[in-house]
């Protein structure tokens, strides 16, 4: 039960005790419409492997209507909708547009490991909102919309088009989302100069900005060989051939680990190779036959390749000659390989020669913050934009929350969310006001 306080008394209390220190209390956070909208979005279970995109699209379309933004839905793959909201720019010239991108899906949860149900968006006394997607990346999408709401209320309008894009399936490599979109005429028609996308949580006044990422090579190696009795030695069994591959891969992996542990390289500068599955044997209802040497073996690896000149060709050669050589009856293919046709891994220029970097830096400087570019270890939809020749910068304007992306008890603080909205507002304002002619992304290769 709550006591109704006299308004002026409340005002006095606020003035005397809470000046600056608690301009917003937990109750205000509970009533704050931006926080309410954020929590509503968090409650929509767009969780892999069966995200409820229909419900998300319905909610977001309603938001667009409130904001007076026309919408379009693209469905390159059935049940995988892409929602586009557009704020038309005032310029008569054909200025390139700004895309504010966020993915709607979130990763799976192990519900019993959570303090609160992951799709309830429970908020505690300190304003911590527990929900899957509260960091990755529903918070970012909601900050875009709140920024637009603030700018519209101010009567501000952009000179170039600002698009807010809501995409499916980023968490499953984006194949049916951005993977289809970036080479489409619909994307080309947006004539984008810059895509803003998700970044890292920052711990202080320095925002980590992802201006590139490692290429993702999902490598499958297969070997065949003579089959035979488990009791005898013979040469060139499939397993023997695979053991040689594993030894070679492990030696390479150790060399990369050593570079990081010696401090010679940063984690984002080395190739990552991790074994993700090993498959072989003759299955029986109880397990495997124990006296047959199998004729086929297969192994899967998650390989991440930094955008360093010459590294791609070097690795390709090594795979063909040492990890899966024909001479050992081995073959390989990539389930996914994220790079351009020519093997380039484009990055976006992260210095003031790129006006989008300069504007981003200027916007956050109003909040006494700076930027630090970083090649992301993981993959995001930004790579598709870069492959399409467009600048992409990944920034999540959130500070001071523990980094819990893809972890149990993912959480966002309501106050930090409100602060983040203000920062995003300045970014959108500067991007939307910029009338210069920008460059596109540049590849280091
Ligand atoms: C900010 O945090 C990062 C870690 O993300 C750290 O490397 C950096 O030194 C910190 N900067 C300051 C000014 O504390
Ligand atoms: C490759 O396969 C052929 C045909 O099964 C076999 O004769 C040969 O010994 C195998 N070589 C190796 C290195 O496994
Ligand atoms: C600005 O940031 C620096 C470094 O984080 C900090 O030392 C300083 O106190 C901040 N100034 C203001 C006015 O917030
Ligand atoms: C956001 O900006 C507005 C307008 O400047 C200000 O009144 C408000 O206190 C800011 N919110 C936060 C959480 O910093
Ligand atoms: Zn994400």
From TrEMBL:
Chain sites annotated for binding Zn(2+) 2: 136, 171, 406
The cofactor(s) it depends on are:
Zn(2+)
Gene3D superfamilies from the UniProt entry: 1.10.150.900, Zn peptidases
Say which domain of life the source belongs to.
Eukaryota
Q: Which residues bind Zn(2+) 1?
A: 103, 136, 198
Q: What is the lineage of its organism?
A: Eukaryota, Viridiplantae, Streptophyta, Embryophyta, Marchantiophyta
Instruction: Look up the signal peptide feature and give its range.
Output: 1-23
InterPro entries tied to this protein: Aminoacylase-1_M20A, N-acyl_aa_amidohydrolase, Peptidase_M20
List the SUPFAM superfamilies hit by this protein, alphabetically. Answer: Zn-dependent exopeptidases
How many cofactors are bound and how? Binds 2 Zn(2+) ions per subunit.
Q: Give the protein's recorded name.
A: N-acyl-L-amino-acid amidohydrolase
Keywords, A to Z, come to:
Cytoplasm, Metal-binding, Signal, Zinc
Q: Active site annotated at which positions?
A: 105, 170
Give GO terms: molecular function aspect only.
metal ion binding
